[in-house]
Every structure is written in structure tokens, then in C-alpha cells.
Amino acid sequence: MPEAQAMQRFAPIIGRWKTSGVVLDEDGRAVMTIDGTDVYEWMPGRQWILHHVDVLMGEERTRALELIGDHDPRTDTYAMRAFDASGAYGNMTAHPNADGTWLFDGDAMRSTLRIADDRSSMSAFWEREISPDTWIPWMRMIFAAIE
After folding, report:
1. How many Å apart are CA 38 and CA 52, to the nearest integer?
2. Among 66, 62, 51, 59, which Cα is nearest to 85's?
């Protein structure tokens, strides 16, 4: 698959999103709210996507930039490289699933992203690994398209 075509898989997420959700404790109870915006935009050439995060998690503001791209045709994955305002950075991979969802996989964390058929909303369920092969719910998020 040519790189430009491989990146087109991300077309449904391009745009501005109103972000809301909750952070969950180890028993799956909501302990903190999430509220803000996420923006996904093509970089020139459409080989990379720039993802802007600006959310409140509880009372703490989280701002980050993430680059998504660098498709690996052997594994059908994409690199995700995030940098936040505190100076921290991380790497994840994005993998498209046959059912239209995406798996975002990182160091002891993973998320499944579902995009609504009409592309007006998305939902993400995040998990964190607390021991080898033991995953617990971490965050539930909803993204509503901003016109």
C-alpha cells in the first residue's frame, strides 16, 4: 500500500474534537473528569498527522503534541510520538483493526479507539498494565466533532 494511501486511514479523525471522559481507579470507578479539546491535522504532504491535546484532568491542565505517521508495511503499524508541556515524551504504535477500530499500544498502556459511522464522534477505552498480562481499566473518553 503506498504511504499516502496508508495515511488516508486516519482521515476520519482529522478535525477538532470536544473531549470529555473519566479517569478510573483500580476498581473501575470514576475518580477524575477529563475535559478539553483534541485537534488532528495533516502536516504538509499528508505523511504525518499533528495531534494537539489540551485537556483538564481534574484540576491539572495537560497539553501535548503528538506526531503520527511512519507507516511500517510489514506490521501495518504507525509510529506515535508524543511530547508534553512538562518535557516528558513517549512512543506508541497505532494499528488498524479489521472491525474499523484502532489499537494504540504503548509502554504498559493501550487504548481502543472507535469512530462512529457518521464520523461525528469517537470513543476511547484506555487500559493500563499492572503486571505482566494483567490489564485494568484506566480511562473512558468521548470525542464529539466540533463544526
Report:
1. 6
2. 62
Adjacent-strand bridge partners of 127: 110, 137
Q: How far apart are the first and last CA of the chain?
A: 32
β-strands 109-115, 121-131 pairing: antiparallel
Rounded distance between C-alpha atoms, residue 131 and residue 140, angstroms: 21
38 contacts 44 by C-beta, under 8 angstroms: no
Q: What is the pTM of this model?
A: 0.93
What does the DSSP 8-state code read for residue 87? S
Among 1, 5, 17, which residue's Cα sits nearest to residue 115?
17
pLDDT for 1 equals 58
Closest alpha carbon to 40 in 80, 1, 87, 88:
80
- pLDDT tens, 93-118? 999 999 999 999 999 999 999 999 99
Spatial distance between the Cα atoms of 123 and 32, rounded to a whole number of angstroms: 17
